[in-house]
């Protein structure tokens, strides 16, 4: 049986034409799926009963089920572990910010990038998410918010996975979100975060989708970056920054460089100066993120003073920089963490869950 959730209106119209069904039926079904969160054809009450039965024989509606929900004591951050029909589970996070509701979405189950500080990559890549599965993460949260008379305002692709390693599905998903019959979400309210897949960054610049590109930099020199992020051996820092520059020139969108601060690894005055030199004159800003410690690797957070001083050096060199506010750390609101616990509990028992990691909030 074919999955209908995540189909575009056009595809559905083609499918229905072959049945044959009137064209307007596809519009009705997209409305039920994407605006009214129907989980079964039997909910679609403006379709004749026989049609509902016919459709349910031909299609399934693949939406994930909630495995775990964690609400932070700050009252503003909630994290959801969502499981798909094959048992694969990913995390999605809702952050109620002063400027609106922001969500963080996963693009892959696990990750193949192998960054040394990140928990999402710990078990490698399980599989890519489909456009429908990513959309389901978003609509799961939108349905919740709608009950509170709220809605999603902005979205970041900073959950588990490397979005540009799942390029076609991610772009398809963003097109879907932008459709009027889905969420009508403006591309300007979307941020995609990448570890620096250069050819895909260049391709993205030509999609005509003015989304914000966020680049995980974490080091201002090649050898240091290669130590932290193995992908740097394939796509070196110099090429990543050049691709960022060209993305900004093509789209007119400011690049956000993410820089995790790790005590005694990349947080010295020298790195701050090198970083300022690297980004000089670019349409870019730096988001400093004190690391969520990874004990096994001895990665620790710098002190508040040294974080502030790193930030000051950048500002002094005319680089716009901010320190990311922490939200939901008591619920391990970083994508990857909850899934790892879920894997550990299934495989080895809960006491094996010791990793602390990605704070991307
Ligand atoms: N693969 C993409 C998107 C997912 S990671 C990317 O690399 O950008 C999203 C962000 O969380 C990245 O900037 C990543 O470096 C950061 N992150 C991963 N582990 C972290 C940790 N332990 N503490 C703080 N941020 C972390």
Could you describe the 3D structure shown?
This protein has 361 residues and is of the alpha/beta class. The chain has eleven helices and 14 strands. α4 (131-146) packs parallel to α5 (167-178). Residues 345-361 have low confidence and may be disordered. Bound molecules: S-adenosyl-L-homocysteine. S-adenosyl-L-homocysteine binds at residues 113, 117-118, 158, 162, 193-195, 216, 258, 260, 289, 291-292, 294, 357-360.
Q: What is the fold named in CATH at topology level of the largest domain?
A: TIM Barrel
Q: Which CATH architecture of the largest domain would you pick?
A: Alpha-Beta Barrel
Beta strand %: 15-25%
Strand order, largest beta sheet: 3-4-5-6-9-10-11-12-13-14
Using only C-alpha atoms, the radius of gyration works out to: 21 Å
Q: What is the percent of helical residues?
A: 25-40%
CATH H-tier superfamily of the largest domain: Aldolase class I
Cα separation of the termini: 39 Å
H-E order: EHHHEEEEEEEHEHEHEHHEHEHEH
Query: Residue-averaged pLDDT, rounded?
Result: 91
Q: How many strands? A: 14
- Output the structural class: alpha/beta
Please outline the helices and strands:
Elements: E1 2-3, H1 9-17, H2 24-35, H3 49-58, E2 59-60, E3 65-71, E4 77-83, E5 89-97, E6 100-104, E7 108-110, E8 125-128, H4 131-146, E9 154-157, H5 167-178, E10 190-194, H6 198-205, E11 212-216, H7 222-228, H8 237-251, E12 255-261, H9 269-279, E13 284-290, H10 304-316, E14 320-323, H11 337-347
Helix pairs in contact: 1-2, 4-5, 6-8, 9-10
This protein binds S-adenosyl-L-homocysteine.
S-adenosyl-L-homocysteine binds at residues 113, 117-118, 158, 162, 193-195, 216, 258, 260, 289, 291-292, 294, 357-360.
């Amino acid at each position: 049986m074919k999955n209908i959730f995540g189909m575009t209106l056009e595809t559905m119209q083609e499918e229905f034409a072959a049945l044959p069904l009137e064209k307007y039926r596809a519009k009705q079904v997209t409305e039920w799926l994407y605006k009214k969160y129907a989980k079964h054809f039997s909910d679609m009450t403006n379709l004749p009963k026989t049609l509902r039965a016919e459709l349910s024989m031909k299609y399934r509606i693949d939406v994930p089920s909630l495995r775990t929900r964690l609400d932070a004591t700050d009252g503003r951050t909630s994290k959801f572990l969502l499981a798909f029909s094959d048992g694969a589970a990913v995390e999605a996070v809702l952050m109620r910010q002063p400027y609106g509701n922001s969500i963080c979405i996963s693009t892959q189950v696990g990750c193949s990038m192998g960054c040394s500080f990140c928990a999402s990559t710990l078990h490698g890549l399980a599989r890519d998410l489909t456009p429908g599965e990513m959309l389901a993460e978003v609509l799961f949260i939108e349905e919740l918010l709608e009950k509170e008379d709220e809605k999603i305002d902005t979205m970041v692709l900073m959950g588990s996975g490397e979005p540009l390693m799942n390029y076609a599905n991610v772009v398809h998903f963003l097109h879907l979100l932008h459709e009027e019959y889905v969420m009508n979400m403006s591309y300007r309210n979307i941020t995609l975060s990448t570890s620096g897949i250069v050819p895909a960054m260049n391709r993205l610049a030509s999609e005509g989708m003015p989304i914000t590109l966020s680049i995980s930099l974490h080091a201002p020199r090649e050898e240091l970056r290669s130590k932290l992020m193995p992908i740097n051996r394939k796509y070196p820092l110099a090429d990543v920054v050049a691709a960022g520059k060209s993305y900004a020139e093509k789209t007119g969108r400011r690049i956000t460089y993410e820089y995790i601060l790790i005590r005694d690894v990349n947080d010295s005055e020298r790195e701050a100066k090198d970083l300022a030199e690297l980004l000089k004159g670019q349409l870019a800003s730096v988001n400093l993120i004190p690391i969520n410690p990874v004990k096994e690797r001895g990665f620790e957070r710098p002190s508040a003073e040294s974080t502030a001083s790193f930030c000051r050096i950048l500002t002094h060199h005319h680089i716009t920089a901010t320190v990311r506010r922490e939200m939901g750390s008591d619920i391990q609101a970083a994508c990857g963490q909850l899934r790892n616990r879920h894997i550990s509990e299934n495989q080895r028992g809960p006491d094996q869950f010791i990793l602390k990691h990605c704070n991307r909030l």
